[in-house]
Amino acid sequence: MRRVTRAADVFFIVNDRVDVALACRADGVHLGQSDPPVDVARALVPSEFIIGVSVSHAAEAVQAVQEGADYVAASPVFLTASKHDAGLVVELPESSRLGRRWTSLSSLSAVSD
Q1: 17: domain CATH number?
Q2: How far are the Cα atoms of 12, 48, 52, 105, 108 from residue 30, in angstroms, in the given order?
Q3: Nearest partner of 31 among 113, 105, 96, judged by Cα
Q4: CA torsion 63→67→73→77, rounded to 10°?
Q5: Does residue 84 fall inside a structural domain?
Q6: Collapsed DSSP state (helix, strand, coil) of residue 52
Q7: How high is the mean pLDDT in each 10-residue block of the chain (113 residues)?
Q8: Sign of the dihedral through C-alpha 6, 9, 15, 16
Q9: Which stretch of DSSP H or E encloses residue 55?
Q10: What is the pTM of this model?
Q11: Structural domain tally of the chain?
Q12: Range of 61's domain?
């Protein structure tokens, strides 16, 4: 996977597992709310490592950025009947106060500067 993503000049982000991301020489890791906190993950990885976090409301987003997240992914953005645990729709105008550090989970290409 690393060879493919490097050849395509795209980021290689591993979901949930900091250890696997490091072993694969990924560019970063994407953490959920039940994964280790950003500050714990940040202490284990190189400084250039990208760390993203799934959030379901603005308070989680603010906390993730304060802990050192490079981006937050807000979800859900649209109502869905296919996931019973999806929760309420994240208000994007509320999340926009984070600047370019947020994205929806349907578009993880929007990584912070």
Answers
A1: 3.20.20.70
A2: 10, 14, 5, 11, 10
A3: 105
A4: 0
A5: yes
A6: strand
A7: 90 95 96 93 95 86 88 72 65 52 43 37
A8: positive
A9: strand 50-55
A10: 0.74
A11: 1
A12: 2-104
